[in-house]
Amino acid sequence: MKSILSSLTGFRSASSWFEVYAAFSTFMMLLRTAVNDLVPDQVRSVISTKLEDFFSKRQSNRQASLTINRYWDDRYERNNELYEAAYDYLPSRVKQTYKSLKIGKLDDREDLALAVDGKEEVVDEFEGIKFTWMLDDGSREEQRDSNKREFKLSFDEKHREIVMNKYIPYVMGKYETKKSERRILKLNSWTHGRYWNGSDFSHPATFKSLALDPELKQTIIDDLERFLKRKEMYKKVGKPWKRGYLLYGPPGTGKSSLIAAMANYLKFDVYDLDLNNVSSNSDLMAAMRNTSRRSIIVLEDIDCNREVHARSVTDDDDDDDEDDDDSSSSFSDDFKEERFTLSGLLNCVDGLWSSHGEERITIFTTNHVEKIDPALLRPGRMDMHIHLSYLKANAFRVLASNYLDIQDHHPLLEQIEELLEKSDITPAQVAEQLIRNEDPDVALNQLLKFLNETNMERQAKKQKKKDKN
């Protein structure tokens, strides 16, 4: 050993380096021989195993993992959105290089669907950090149980904060954006007082296609946009994040089309609730409770239900505060009686039961607004009243463009618009005339004839009524 140290202090050339190497090699051979001769095999094996465990544990302890199950709650099968997000996100990261992908064509999507199948790890990179994903389908005996499906996300322990605060929100954001772009809306109807029966909502109406006064149309769009952006404001003032609209006017003025346009604009599902199919307040509560967030709840032709008709003066409350108190107390009594009442509806629209869901819109439609009890129409219940009236000149231009592709001027437009200003004609009646012929000249002439005849009939009725009086 002294010769090695002396060589280390005195070398100056390549030959000196060779002498050091030779001396060190000789020392190691002597040491290995001594260990083999003096230390028993069992002791050497234990020492080797301990050293391997020590270094492997130091390496593995730096790795952390998160388990992402398909269902958060096995008993109630509550979907874990993070699982869906990972399932949707990972194929987009590896579809060019991954060796084992599932592929298919789903009936509700135009593009091909891709998914990882659990046969190999997926490595993703975010902000220069590598993350490893693995889909575990469970054992063969467990594969029939979809609850056993899970993702495992592995990463270096030192990046835990980045994973929780940046990476997972990034994956969720990608999923939400993609889901919104390809989302197929659902139209749900309350069936037998027990459950919502859903189907694809494919109504093509948009705000662009609506035959509506341009100023009114923009007012509605602005109100919807304002509602979407004001979640924190609603929370700050202590109000549920919801909005109510009343659509009223003669039949055929576009109430259903406006609802469809609102749903398509917001990307909200629609829940169509016929109050005549609601037998009790508890039934109504069950229907409301089982609607999802980001939805529109529609109560069409509400005037057809006698329970919501305007009460007599003796039954009406003197002011809003008394109305609220009356609604709460009578709701409790009516609930026990198991029947549907106005107070039950008021409680679900603006009372305690209205707070079970957020980012929701409630829409009432009626042909006879004068029949509806004022308590149901006040702000907080129906915040915006939209009068959909007969077709006039501004809105007619939209129909002319939609049906006949008339963008600018046509000789008959001014005559038609003058007649519309003096007529009580609905958009549905005009649309029926325009759809009968694709030739603009023929279609507009037929419409002009229809308007003249309608006005003549109207004048004749007026005269007949006048003569009768």
UniProtKB/TrEMBL annotation:
Biased-composition ranges, Acidic residues, are 315-327
Keywords assigned: ATP-binding, Hydrolase, Magnesium, Nucleotide-binding
Please give the organism: Crotalaria pallida (Smooth rattlebox)
Q: Which cofactor does it need?
A: Mg(2+)
Which GO molecular function annotations are given, in alphabetical order? ATP binding; ATP hydrolysis activity
Similarity comment: family membership: Belongs to the AAA ATPase family. BCS1 subfamily.
Q: Which InterPro entries match?
A: AAA+_ATPase (IPR003593), AAA_N_dom (IPR025753), At3g28540-like_C (IPR058017), ATPase_AAA_core (IPR003959), ATPase_AAA_CS (IPR003960), Mitochondrial_chaperone_BCS1 (IPR050747), P-loop_NTPase (IPR027417)
Q: Know the name of this protein?
A: AAA+ ATPase domain-containing protein
| Database matches in Pfam families | AAA, AAA_assoc, AAA_lid_At3g28540
* Chain positions covered by the region annotation Disordered: 310-332
Instruction: Describe the reaction catalysed, as an equation.
Output: ATP + H2O = ADP + phosphate + H(+)
UniProt superkingdom = Eukaryota
Tell me the lineage of the source organism. Answer: Eukaryota, Viridiplantae, Streptophyta, Embryophyta, Tracheophyta
